Amino acid sequence: MTCGDEHNELKWSRAAAEEAEAVASIKCSGHGRASLDGLPIEGKPACQCNSCYSGDDCSVLLPNCAVDSGSGNPLFLEPYWMKNAASSAMVVSGWHRMGYSYEDGSYISKELEKVIRRLHEVVGNANTKGKYILFGAGSTQLLNAAIVGLSPTPPQNYTGNHSFSPANVVASVPFYQVYKQQTDIYNSLSFKWKGDASLWKNNSDSTENFIEFVTSPNNPDGRIMEPVLKGSSVKTIYDYAYYWPHFTGISSPVDTELMIFTISKLTGHAGSRFGWAFVKDRALYERMENYLDVNSIGSSHDTQLRALVLLKSVLKDKARGLFEFGHGAMRKRWVTLNKSVSKSRRFSLQKLRPRYCSFFKKVTHPSPAYGWLKCERKEDRDCPAVLRAAGVMGRNGSVFHASNKYVRLSLIRSQDDFDLLLRKIDALVSQE
Amino acid sequence: MTCGDEHNELKWSRAAAEEAEAVASIKCSGHGRASLDGLPIEGKPACQCNSCYSGDDCSVLLPNCAVDSGSGNPLFLEPYWMKNAASSAMVVSGWHRMGYSYEDGSYISKELEKVIRRLHEVVGNANTKGKYILFGAGSTQLLNAAIVGLSPTPPQNYTGNHSFSPANVVASVPFYQVYKQQTDIYNSLSFKWKGDASLWKNNSDSTENFIEFVTSPNNPDGRIMEPVLKGSSVKTIYDYAYYWPHFTGISSPVDTELMIFTISKLTGHAGSRFGWAFVKDRALYERMENYLDVNSIGSSHDTQLRALVLLKSVLKDKARGLFEFGHGAMRKRWVTLNKSVSKSRRFSLQKLRPRYCSFFKKVTHPSPAYGWLKCERKEDRDCPAVLRAAGVMGRNGSVFHASNKYVRLSLIRSQDDFDLLLRKIDALVSQE
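ok -> structure tokens follow
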């Protein structure tokens, strides 16, 4: 064998590849990672430590550090990607996809579309046949697009008389706060936030238009949800961010009019801001597409390439590796947390049932993304404060328009965050 | 020398780097390029040809093909990036920046922020000191954020009485159509589109609120613009997408309250959807940041890394290479197009003046992004149709709310598109 026999010589990509591998090889004790775009220390890339860890190599656990169990930062999947480094690496040339659109004039990579449809088929969680696809900056932008797309347009020069009604936007408490924020922020004549869906149960066959968000499994409590409102004047936006085998048994493929997904809770790449929607109705699809065009001229080509690389990597073993890892991690965390909380009379967690999972071809036991913890004592009116005092920073029940008898504990963060959470909960429970 | 002496052995990035280099080496006769995410032919990556070119290697010029001179697809810079392949290559690991936020909890890469501020200092086109920075999905999303951020909030339960006035949003004709589309799409109570700024010149010291878009240099006609409206009830959004040495002499750094930039017309990476805004006022910055959070939870980390890599590459020679290439290309195209049109009495182009450019340290002659072509004959009322008949697809004057005596011809597209445009214009002029 002579030099260069085994491998092709790399030209323009070598220096960037060497830099990326050098950064990746920086040791952070398993409690952090270095990034190409991390803040350098003395001009060199440095470890970015998980919260509560410190030191050049992240080896120091800070004493009395409050654990962040707030945001749904899906770092539980980071170890999976570290193990699958070769198939998930992405190399991009400086002149990659500079133009606004793809070959067909759209803002959608057809290769990525194919891979997404294939993934749903392999997982069996959604029927995508005969449905249009849209890409967005996370599911977040698509939720916006759906509200605008489903709402009526007021007559020209409308000045507020009552011959026109906006769409009433609702969700079931507890719900993901972004639905309300997005509805409120534009002060639109076309759509108005109207709170809890159940308040309108008897109104829903009126002439007023309703848009209901249905999140299934639900954020924060992991329940499988159905619409509360029905009838011809009701449109439903199905947010299926968590309808993956990590978090629930996939009983059957969903097949609704408007289905929204995100890569954030599927592969864990929340920072990529990539989501997609399947839309049955052509006119709605066109209205949503127009919104995405006007809002941001489509979605980043760099992000689309990243999603393509990641999902192709996932599909290499028909997604078994990803979901076995993900479900395994989530199930273990749920069991451990329940074991700890079950010793307590002061706290309780939501009850979830086993479900048959057609992907795993067996009944799977609960593995939700979040614990929806309740303070059972009457005097513990401010459950978030009880947890804060014990060094646990969850997300207040009130953020989900529920009472502060509840706190959402994120179970999808890094293993460090989970381990610390458990330690704090154990300590809190042992005080009883 | 022994094997592997010169270079480190690459591990996880090698296969992806080899794949990217293999795709990049596909020969497309200089009339196209292959992409990692291109539609494969028989399972292999294939050339994606420039419009009017065809064949496996894009070597066939289609006869009688209409030239696309419509969109501002900034492919004129593609050859620059092909020449600077090594410094602009990006290698990303599968676990890069999976979380929602950066180390400091924000959605903004601090390294990228530094590089952007440095670039403005080197170019001398904007004073960024003491200003907050925001990132968006192109400047597009930031224009939205600015409208929402600058608009008043109606009183709670407002039902359309007249004690509350929305912000009146205006721009000077001819203007970029997205300003109107974004204002209209939400049917907002907080902001209303009110057309041409000059219509409101005498109203602007009234109690009504105005938001004026000022695009300088202007899209479509390349003029340096000043606000039409002034006074305490007027807010100005400065869109500086084209305020780079490619397109105009940089006479002095701009230093306004709200300045919006985009990578699309700077490096040519329109497909990346990346822009930034500098904001002087803290309260406005916070409102815009909240909008970006609610609209998409910040901007893609993949895109931010790409922008970092590209801008670091640009700064390697203090941006001389990029702007000498870019200005050279644009100036040459403008001279050539003018030469052709100057032989005509039927058509004319906008007149632009030379300006001193502090970046090049000399007077530079006009090099606008677009030709704003006028049909001078009285009977040529539909100038776009005149051009269409000659095989030139420009953008109608009416799109910019001007008359269809005008057509915008994009000069920032690929060299092929420009060469074809020139051929068609030459032929049209020679018919006179």
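Residues 14-65 of chain A form a domain with the Laminin fold (CATH 2.10.25.30).
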